[in-house]
Amino acid sequence: MESQILRPGYLTAHQTASVLGISLDGVRQLVRRGQLKRAGGSPRQPWYAVDDVAALAAERRTANAA
Question: Distance between CA atoms of 65 and 60, rounded to whole angstroms?
Fold first, then answer.
């Protein structure tokens, strides 16, 4: 459930998962591994910076293309 109002430039965990093409658990795993950093929100509803998510998505596309 996405009840918090986001500031521009941030994505919810659900939006982040959708952009990256992974599950919510996959987003949590990326955070645990230090590949993605929370940028705000609450422990139950974290936000992620659009720039960080876009950079990670580009990195993943490049790795998959190689």
Answer: 9
CB 65 within 8 A of CB 28: no
Contact between residue 36 and residue 53 where contact means Cβ atoms under 8 Å apart = yes
User: Distance between CA atoms of 1 and 3, rounded to whole angstroms?
Assistant: 6
**Residue spans of beta strands (DSSP E) within the chain:** 10-12, 38-41, 46-49
Q: Tokens 């952009």: give the residue.
A: 19
**Whether 31 contacts 20, CB under 8 Å:** no
- CA atoms within 13 A of residue 34's CA, in its CB half-sphere: 0
pLDDT of residue 1: 46
* pLDDT tier at 18, thresholds 50, 70, 90: very high
